[in-house]
Amino acid sequence: MAVAFLFGTWLALRESRRLHLDEDRVVTVVLVALVAGVLGARMLYVLEHVSEFRREWGSVLALWQGGLTLYGGLVAGVFGGLLAARRLGLPVWVTADALAPSLAIGGAIGRVGCFLNGCCYGRPTRLPWGVSFPPSSFAGLEFGNAKIHPSQLYFSLAGLVVFAFVWAVRKRTGPAGTLFWISTMLYALVRIPLDFTRAYEPETAFLSAFGIEIVESQLSSLAIALFSLLMIMRLRRESLAPSAA
User: Fold this and answer.
1) E strands along the chain, which residues?
2) Residues 185/228, Cβ–Cβ less than 8 Å
3) How far is CA 158 from CA 6, 24, 134, 190, in A?
4) Cα–Cα distance between 195 and 181 in angstroms, integer?
5) Using one digit for the tens of pLDDT, what is the confidence trace for 61-97?
6) Counting Cβ atoms within 10 Å, is residue 192 exposed (0-12), middle (13-18) or buried (19+)?
7) Residue 96: in which H helix or E strand, if any?
8) Residue 138 CB contacts under 8 Å (≥ 6 apart), including other chains
9) How far is Cα 135 from Cα 139, in angstroms, rounded to an integer?
10) What are 208-227's pLDDT values in tens digits?
11) CA 52 to CA 70: how far, in whole Å?
């Protein structure tokens, strides 16, 4: 996470210079988004595991013990970052576009950390690239020595692909804000199929039929993708609307 933050900040500053944004203010936006993102990710995780925390509410703040939910961090981080940009007098959607590549590459780097930590692990598989985790790891405790999908690396690769696309088109995506929402939509869309390879707690399943489980994160991904598409359409429509006299 530290590597993702540092590299993402460096990349955001590079884009800020290209887009003629005040770099000091952009750093402030990044810091606000980081804090809001961590708090949001922890809050959603706690809400999803309330029964566990009822026995010891003091552990809610024990971030070093793990327990963050990505979409909670994404929503809170984006909201906090956009609010900070507005308060600091930065053009909100231009700032969001400057941060879009950083979010994509940051997610890719962060998932490598998930793999090394052993969290966010995959389901058992017979594919030749299946991996086994140590017996004392999260995956080892659940699946033993069974080969499982390296889902964290799938997500990392997907993040790299999204980053490569966003970086390639960043100078020709149309109205300000479009690049940010394209990045968000692409990540949400690629996550839907990748989540089929990931092991989730049974209670997160929303629908199960024919051996296929639809989990909450997939529904969240679909909702975020649709919302991102609506925002892209709105930004384009506003850019084409005639200016008021």
Assistant:
1) 205-209, 212-215
2) yes
3) 20, 31, 25, 7
4) 21
5) 655 555 667 777 788 888 999 999 999 999 999 999 9
6) middle
7) helix 92-117
8) 118, 119, 121
9) 8
10) 555 667 888 888 899 999 99
11) 19
